[in-house]
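I am writing to request your help with a piece of structural work I have in hand. What I wish to show you is a protein chain and, alongside it, a tokenised description of its three-dimensional fold. Could you please explain, in whatever detail you think fit, how the structure tokens follow from the sequence? You will find the record immediately after this paragraph.
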Amino acid sequence: MRINSANVVKEIEESPEESQQELTLLHALSKHSVSGLKDLKKEFDPTPIDPKAKKPDLINELLPSIPKESINAIIDKAFNPKIRYTAYIASFEADLPDGEEIAKKTEGFNSDHQYQNEDLLTNGHVERSTLEYVHTIKGESIFVFSSYRKELKFDPEARESTPSTSVKKIRISVDNSTKLITMYTGNKDILGDVLRAMYYIFGKSVKTVSINLAGIVPVDTQEFSYQTVKVLDYIYHGLTELGKLGVINSIELDTPLKSKKPQLVKVKGDDLLTDEVICKYLFIHKRDLVGIRTDFTIILNGFEYLISVELGLKDDKIKVSIKKDHYSLDQLDIFFKLIEENVSIHMANRGLINAQDLHLILSRLSNLALK
């Protein structure tokens, strides 16, 4: 089901719901260090601070003591305009369970992922995961996945090792209409843990959104790699369904040895199609195009929203990243939904969107590469 763009502008301009603000505040506090949380506690809570208090304890103590008028300031400070929000996309086919069934399944997940304390002395650390169901509003369910790591750290003053706990919290949005799962993390290592948590809720129907190269025939490629052809077709004919493509700042190329980290190449000038070095990489060396960072204008009912968007399209994983700039977190959520649905549909479909126009683009690239 498509997102109803007629309602999007209204949703963008509406104030956030209280539950969403509370979740965002929790996320903002989790980004603080222990010393930073202690400073906030001194400001808002006059009760004495336990010097051995860990980060989760400080957050739980802080939440009820922060006045409403101070919440936005804390959120804005934690999420400055230069920050990029990153999310991986997965899909699911099963129906969303009801609240009672979700509660039962999250309880089962948490029970199965407790600390194995006997490993603390053996390995020096232990890990556990929890999944919290927050709410379902308008067909969208919100979860918070928490990854805890407890490790022994030597205290030189006490001359003994004491356990120290760190936590990473991942917000997960499950859209029952588009059947997409948005996992707000750029960390591929923790992504697998988040997916396993979603398997617990939805079963085997959960999968990352794959890049479908089927249906592309050799004549379509003009000797470029199939991956590059698919991605270029999406950038110029799929993404542009949502608005106007601006300056392409950089691209990512898969390395010859297919290493984890792609090669970042900055685009010279204003146009990817006029950069001779990139043309040689793509045509002569047959490198796979696996990522792009570009300025993009989303158009909704005549309103224009300029954003900086980054797409990662590698190893059957689709990643979307958007720079915060002056937009609220609710606005960013809507931008994510629009782009995620668009890229998921087009990258999963067979063949190309506009093979005829893509032929002209590939000809420009190959001619410049051979210049």
Remarks:
- The CA atoms of residues 154 and 160 lie 6 Å apart.
- The longest helix spans residues 329-348.
